[in-house]
Write a structure and sequence with these properties.
Layout (H helix, E strand, L loop, with lengths): L3 H12 L2 H17 L10 H16 L25 H20 L2 H12 L4 H8 L3 H27 L1
């Protein structure tokens, strides 16, 4: 299935729950198949599918109060490379946890734009198509989202230094 892994990953970040993410991806493909006649040839299929997923997520939320849970015990741990020491592994894990916690604190509109740009590596125009916003808005929202992310990370670093 095209884009399955990428859509599932995005859904996990948005929903914060693997079961909800599976339901979102299933609903996305179902709606995509049903509405495929509305897809315009020559447009970005990936952005179209992400938009369906995003709309399904937004429709499933009451007041957009969803947060990403980072304490999922089912997540597989990464296998350490042989050159790494227990200390470097711990430091890397703490860094990842800090970034995930800050990302989870962001409002959905900031979280989704960072995920689409930095994690999914979508172009600004594809993000604009996905979110139904102009490219200029994508760039300004991404700038605000990254600024907010830096602020959250700085606040967490200040807490850790005390």
């Amino acid at each position: 299935m095209p884009l399955f892994d990428q859509l599932y990953n995005f859904a996990c970040w948005l929903a914060g729950d693997r079961t909800a993410a599976e339901d979102l991806v299933q609903e996305t493909f179902m709606k995509g198949l049903r509405g495929f006649s509305s897809f315009r040839q020559g447009t970005n299929f990936r952005a179209w599918m992400y938009r369906i997923l995003r709309n399904a997520f937004l429709n499933s939320q009451a007041g957009l109060r969803a947060t990403v849970s980072l304490d999922d015990e089912d997540q597989a741990t990464l296998e350490p490379e042989t050159r790494e020491t227990p200390e470097t592994i711990l430091l890397a894990q703490v860094e990842q946890d800090t970034i995930r916690a800050a990302l989870a604190e962001l409002p959905v509109q900031y979280r989704e734009i960072i995920l689409l740009c930095d994690l999914e590596e979508m172009t600004y125009s594809a993000i604009g198509e996905t979110l139904a916003i102009p490219t200029g808005t994508v760039m300004s929202r991404l700038s605000r989202a990254r600024r907010a992310m830096r602020g959250l990370l700085a606040a967490q670093a200040a807490k850790g230094a005390k």
